[in-house]
What does this fold into?
Amino acid sequence: MSEKTRAWLKAAGIRAIKTVAQTAVATIGVSAVMSDVNWIAVGSASLLAGVLSVLTSIAGLPEIQE
It folds into this structure.
């Protein structure tokens, strides 16, 4: 694996993890109390956000200089 590919995977992974965490916090935050949290919806929305983040990263990452 080339160094450029390795750098892209690292940057895209970090970005996706941050996106998943932000989506989870936002989705949990709409519930009045923790017992009202729909954990399936939180997981589903967070996973989708992570996948979309990786797909968006294919277009380019500013963290990786060309």
About this structure: The chain has two helices and no strands.
